[in-house]
Amino acid sequence: MNFETIFFYTFSTIALTSAIFVIYSTNTIYSAFFLIK
Length: 37
Hints:
Helix content is 92%, strand content 0%. It is mainly α. It has one domain (3-36). The longest helix is centred in the middle third of the chain and has 34 residues, at 3-36. The chain is rod-shaped. The chain starts with a helix and ends with a helix.
């Protein structure tokens, strides 16, 4: 494995994790908002 492959794999993993976290936190915020409302 060269450096570019490692960098791409790390970047894609971080991007995927952050995307899932954003979607999960957004759904949680919406659920809490509707519960409060």
